[in-house]
Amino acid sequence: MRAPLTELPIVLEDAAVVVGPLTILNDIALTLAAGAPTVLVGPNGSGKTTLLRLAMGLLVPSRGRVTWGGRIDAASTRRAIVFQRPVMLRRSAAGNIRYALSAASVARRERAARAAELLALVGLSELGDRPARKLSGGEQQRLALARALAKEPQVLFLDEPTASLDPAASKVVEDVIRAVTARGIKVVMATHDLGSARRLAGDVVLLHRGRIVESGDAATFFANPATREARSFVAGELLI
User: Fold this and answer.
1) Contact indicator for 170, 160 with CB cutoff of 8 Å
2) Is there a contact between 39 and 222 (Cβ–Cβ < 8 Å)?
3) Domains of the chain: which residue ranges?
4) Residue 35 reports pLDDT greater than 80
5) Is residue 97 within 8 Å of 115, Cβ to Cβ?
C-alpha cells in the first residue's frame, strides 16, 4: 500500500522571488519541519508575507526551488493559509464554515456537526448564527482560522494573526493556535509582535531586506541572539 503523501518537511533551497527590478526574497535556505510553530519575524517589508506565500505554493520561485515532503508539485489540499485581513462571506459564521467544508468535499450530512466542532474549537459556539461581517476583528480572525481548518491541513500558514487586535483578543487567538498545534498541525506564522513570538514559537526566523539573517531555536534566539541584526531587533531597535 502506498504511504499517504506528506507536506513536511517543506524545504526552500536558495529560493528567490524577483518582481521586475525588485528582489523581494533572495538566497532563502530554510526547512520547515513538524513540531512547534515556526515564527517569521522582521521589520515591515522584510519579506515575511512573501515567504509564507512561497512556502504555501502560491508563488513560484524566480530562482531555486521549494519542495513539500520531497515533492516539487505545489498542488495540495493539505496546506491552508489565513491572510492578515481575511474576507468574510455574506453568510453566518457557521455558514462560512459550511461553505469551506463543501469546498473541501466534506459530505453534506457531516457539515453541521463539523461546523459546530470547529466553532467550538475557536470559541465561537454562541455566535454561529451571527452574520460573519458583524463579528469583531478578533472574532473574524478566529472564524478565518476555523474556515482554514475545515480542509484538515497538515500545515497552516498565518500572516499577522494578531495584528490590530487588543490584548484580550490576541490572547484568544494565541490560545487557538496552541490548540491547533496540539492537534499535530504545523503552524508557520509571520508576526511583528515579539511578545507573541516569544509565547508561541518553537523556532524563529528573522528576515531583513529579503534575506534570512538568523534562524534557530526560539529560546536561544531571544536569550542569546548571534547576529547584530537579531540583537538590535530583540532589543526593540529599528532595522533599516
Assistant:
1) no
2) no
3) 90-151
4) yes
5) yes
Q: Which amino acid is at 68?
A: W
Kindly state the cell numbers that stand for 212. Answer: 534570512
The per-residue pLDDT for range 90-104, each reduced to its tens digit, is 999 999 999 999 999
Whole-prediction pTM = 0.94
- β-partners of residue 81 are 157
| CB hemisphere CA count around 180 (13 angstroms) | 32
Cα–Cα nearest to 28, from 52, 45, 8, 7: 52
Up-side HSE of residue 195: CA atoms within 13 Å toward CB? 6
Single out the residue of 79, 76, 82 nearest to residue 96, CA to CA: 82
- Alpha-carbon gap, residue 157 to 100, rounded angstroms: 17
Cβ atoms of 209 and 151 closer than 8 Å: no
Cα 131 vs. chain centroid, distance in angstroms? 25
Positive or negative: CA dihedral 17, 22, 27, 33: negative
Residue 66 phi/psi, 5° resolution?
-125, 135
Instruction: Give Cα separations from 185 to 6, 182, 191 (angstroms).
Output: 12, 7, 18
Question: Residue 173: what are its φ and ψ, rounded to 5°?
Answer: -65, -40
Nearest to 10 by CA among 73, 84, 83, 82: 73
For 13, phi then psi, to 5°, come to -115, 105
Residues 129-171: tens digit of each pLDDT: 999 999 999 999 999 999 999 999 999 999 999 998 999 999 9
Q: Which of 155, 156, 153, 151 is nearest to 111 (CA)?
A: 151
The three-class DSSP label of residue 93 is: helix
